[in-house]
Design a protein that fits this description.
Length: 300
């Protein structure tokens, strides 16, 4: 009987909580919208509450409140509660709170925090020039996820990041950091990156350099791409063959035709595809079954 009574008591308590919580939350949000600073602080404090997905609902309410929520969010950017910290940083990112960049940078650079890539993501969402230096610095982070999200954010910041990335590549970097910067410059595809990319053509990241040069679609890269068509790395050969398609011409056709008999199937296929783009003629390549076939058109 005691167990049964306890079970009914717990159900009654849970039922009351499920009935009251949305109403109380709505009232709290209404007060926050009306300029009640204490209500806003309380609302932000609920971002760490996971029961009944409270944090999800609070997060949506904070985004609705908008920029007025920023002063209450800033003091808890580095909250020890990971869940609350991530919601706060995500909110500041989506609210494009430029004033939060120093605090978010502090989280990004603190190895004691887990999942720091959320901070790198948020800096990209804010979209300010001030976010570029910490993101470029994060390319040298030991955490692969931090490097990945920093790269994505720099790509999103686009031309704001070009000059800092070029400067970064002029200094000695680890292969991982160098590769991240090269990939970012390739996806941004600003012609200003041509010279620095060319300087890294003989680096450990030459496959990424070749891809980046191709994305620039700069005719000045043609000679460099032809020069690596017979690189020992099949990835370099494939990337060079791919990159030549949009910027090459009949003049490079003979050099690229030699890859139609490459040892690697994907290299042969991309050579045939790019030759068609360069010359306007149909080409065949030897597939893995030893048959000579035409490459399918990836643009349809």
């Amino acid at each position: 009987m005691v167990r049964l009574a306890l079970a009914f008591l717990l159900l009654a308590i849970c039922g009351c909580q499920q009935t009251r919580e949305p109403i109380a939350l709505d009232e709290l949000a209404a007060s926050a919208r009306n300029g009640d600073a204490e209500a806003l602080v309380q609302l932000v404090g609920l971002l760490g509450e996971q029961g009944e997905r409270t944090n999800d609902r609070v997060y949506a309410l904070i985004l609705e409140i908008g920029k007025d929520a920023v002063p209450a969010l800033l003091p808890v950017v580095a909250d020890p509660d990971r869940i609350k910290r991530e919601y706060v940083i995500a909110a500041l990112g989506n609210l494009k709170a430029v004033g939060a960049i120093p605090a978010i940078t502090g989280v990004l650079e603190n190895p004691q925090f887990g999942r720091r890539y959320v901070a790198a993501w948020a800096l990209g969402e804010i979209g300010s020039q001030a976010a570029v230096p910490p993101l470029v610095k994060a390319l040298a982070d030991q955490d692969v996820e931090v490097r990945k999200y920093a790269t994505r954010s720099l790509i999103k910041l686009n031309r704001l990041a070009v000059a800092p990335l070029i400067f970064f590549l002029r200094q000695p970097q680890s292969p991982e950091a160098e590769g991240a910067a090269i990939r970012a410059l390739g996806d941004i595809a600003d012609p200003a990156a041509f010279e620095i990319l060319l300087q890294h053509l003989d680096s450990a990241n030459r496959a990424d350099v070749v891809t980046a040069l191709g994305k620039l679609k700069d005719p000045r890269a043609v000679d460099a791409l032809v020069a690596v068509l017979h690189d020992p790395s099949w990835r370099v050969r494939m990337n060079a063959a791919t990159a030549l398609g949009p910027i090459g011409s009949e003049q490079q056709a003979a050099a690229l035709e030699t890859l139609l008999e490459d040892d690697v199937n994907v290299v042969r296929e991309w050579a045939a595809r790019s030759l068609e783009m360069m010359t306007g003629r149909r080409y065949t390549y030897r597939n893995e079954a030893g048959e000579y076939v035409k490459p399918y058109n990836i643009y349809h």
